[in-house]
Specification:
It is a single chain. By secondary structure, the chain is an alpha+beta fold. The chain has helices at 10-50, 72-76; strands spanning 81-85, 90-91, 96-103, 111-117, 123-131, 140-147, 157-163, 176-182. An 8-stranded mixed β-sheet has the order 1-3-6-5-4-7-8-2, with no helix packed on it. The relative contact order is 0.15. The model is unreliable at 55-69 (pLDDT under 50).
């Protein structure tokens, strides 16, 4: 008796091959989904536990001048530079003495630029403040400066502009403090 060997048809071979291909791609898709979900889970855990969250009440003493001045420029930089004179909206006369303290990284070679603007925003005087101590530190270092300017109309206003010395020229490192004054 002869044994009959079943020879699969071409349809059966194609169907079997497609089923194997479908199954293996489906498994790959399944593993990809599991791996992506694992990565998302790890990223979420890092965001939740590793990255510190900012609270609305920061109790750390970071400023030597904790009171709000109402001037966004002064408030934003109060832990970087503090101007003792002139005070905001102070009546000033020429020569204008500028004193205060700034962190050492405000200066370059112990100086930083300053300017006095009139009510139209035009520069009427410019110069530098000079650090009065070792400026190569991150601590506060006292400074002094003087600006001499022409007479201004009585009752007019101006702005004293203190700018950190930014030798890199990188705009993201540029900081400016505006102090309104009266002439």
């Amino acid at each position: 008796m002869e044994a009959k060997v079943a020879i699969p048809s071409a349809k059966a071979i194609i169907a079997y091959s497609l089923a194997q291909l479908w199954y293996s791609k489906g498994m790959r898709k399944g593993w990809i989904v599991v791996i992506v979900l694992f990565i998302i889970l790890i990223a979420g855990a890092i965001a939740l536990f590793v990255i510190p969250s900012k609270t609305s009440e920061d109790t750390s003493p970071t400023s030597t001048n904790p009171q709000s001045t109402g001037n966004p420029s002064v408030d934003a930089l109060k832990d970087t530079i503090v101007v003792d004179a002139p005070a905001q909206n102070a009546q000033v006369t020429s020569p204008l003495a500028i004193t205060g303290k700034a962190r050492g990284n405000w200066y370059a070679e112990a100086t930083a630029p300053i300017a006095l603007l009139d009510q139209n925003g035009s520069v009427i005087a410019q110069g530098t403040i000079r650090a009065q101590g070792d400026w190569m530190t991150t601590d506060f270092v006292p400074f002094v400066g003087t600006l001499t300017y022409p007479d201004q109309p009585a009752g007019s206003v101006g702005t004293l502009v203190l700018t950190n010395d930014n030798p890199s020229g990188d705009p993201s490192r540029q900081k400016t403090l505006d102090i309104p004054v009266k002439f």
